[in-house]
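User: Hello, can you help with two protein structures?

Assistant: Certainly.
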Amino acid sequence: MTVPDAVFTPVSRTLTLPPSTGRTALPKLIATDLDGTLLRRDGTVSPRTAAALAAAGRAGIEVLFVTGRPARWVLPLREHATGRSLAICGNGAALVDLRSGGTLLAARALPVTGALGLVAALRAAAPGVTFAVERAGGIHYATGYPPLHEEDPTVVGTTPVEELLAEDSPYAGQPLLKLLAHHRELTPDAFLALARSVCGGLGEITRSSPTALLEISAPGVTKASTLALHCARHGIAPGEVVAFGDMPNDLEMLRWAGRAYAMANAHPAVLAAAGRRTLSHQKDGVAVVIEQLLAGG
């Protein structure tokens, strides 16, 4: 089902736990990014991290993946989710049930009119920009978009992005989760800053790739806003959440969670924003913190 945007309330201020009076209370939920955070460089979960996630589950802590990935790229990791076995995908655009094979429980779609406005604004500001469209059913390349996701079997041919977004498109019945914009010459952060300056309130613009690839969701749709809704539904306060991340698309989530950790390999903006740091994803930084939490630290 599609959940009205009005019930998703973005939260921007950082909340922290009260001072400890002894043993630190266990969190109710661990919200973790995947690439560059939980996963190693080869995309795998290390044995140490797998053991830490399993231990968190046995302690009654929900492990929720909160990622820019589409659901189909999260399914291979479903054995490591605990509790309700859910994932927030597409930077908050989709809530999926991993246990049932990736069933879409809720979608926060990007309006087509907004997507077309974003296309026009980015073309005017950054000539040479190319686009892809991520819908609930898969990703579709527009003309000129580079082969960044060749491993994805849902990629289809190259057509103008306006046709992919048209009301008579064969994909029009699928929720539009993200618009992807790529530039071959601009640096990633420069492209992000430019896009945010020209696109106004047409969408939430962020990035998680080392290339100049922007990920654009509906206005107000971030990892934080969807995580906040999930937690509110299940009686979990921000102070009962521990979050991990490494890239700009994690910033809102890290600012919202009661305890937030930036990976040692994180983007400078993430390192500056997060209240705490842990080891890199290559050194099992998430596992290190979970082990400490379970030990009462």
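That covers the first. Now for the second protein you mentioned:
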Amino acid sequence: MPRTPAPPAPAALAAKVRTLGPSMTRSMQRVAETVADDPAGCAALTVTALAERTGTSEATVVRTARSLGYPGYRDLRLALAGLAAQQQSGAAPAVTADIAVDDPISSVVDKLAQEERQCLADTAAGLDTTQLEAAVAALSGARRIDVYGIGASNLVAQDLAQKLLRIGLIAHAHADPHLAVTNAVQLRTGDVAIAITHSGGTTDVIEPLRVAFDHGATTVAITGRPDAAVAQYADHVLTTSTARESELRPAAMSSRTSQLLVVDCLFVGVAQRTYESAAPALSASYEALAHRHNPKHP
């Protein structure tokens, strides 16, 4: 029987709205944005009252609650009450303003730092740790690991592959879509394939993951759109959040921060589970490269 995921924690609600909002219908967006903007007020509303406030229907309210990860509207109201309490205590961070063309560099630093903190907090709040633990377990015992990513996501894929190589696992990152599919054909049960795509709809990433899935490999998707096409070929979905896009902060830039957090969580989790072999492997790789960092002492 498929595992039913636990409803998101209150702190994850705003992150869910930011992540899933663009893929919702306009009426569902109105409901999602309303509850995120006024959790205290909406927590006191019945499903009928919230539908009236947003100019939608009761069915739309319920669908929105389920899209955000809650079994029903009652669970969403509980999360709203919890989020309202966090905001009143100052625990919920505010979203900063967009970076302007004429902002001084000091303001750019402050705004980017706050956006990065918000993005990390949103990702941590929304990350399904049960899915994460399952992915870590699969990676820890994998015969071979393929990681797929295009563009900025390939930089993250390379980061993960290099980390896993340093602890003795056989891992490769593929940016060429043809080579990715060619390698995916060779995967079998006991292997792991990981797709990294913020949009969840990148064909050059989905295709090798589908091939790996069809050949019996354990598949993992790291994506900002858990309901996107990539998820249908993923045994485990790890959801990332992202800071708001702007003219000077494109999606590729803002999604990278949350992807790197998930990658680091995977790496550390695997290193913990394989510590007896990971620690010597890390030490050996450090010693092998030490002379390159300190050439005066060969």
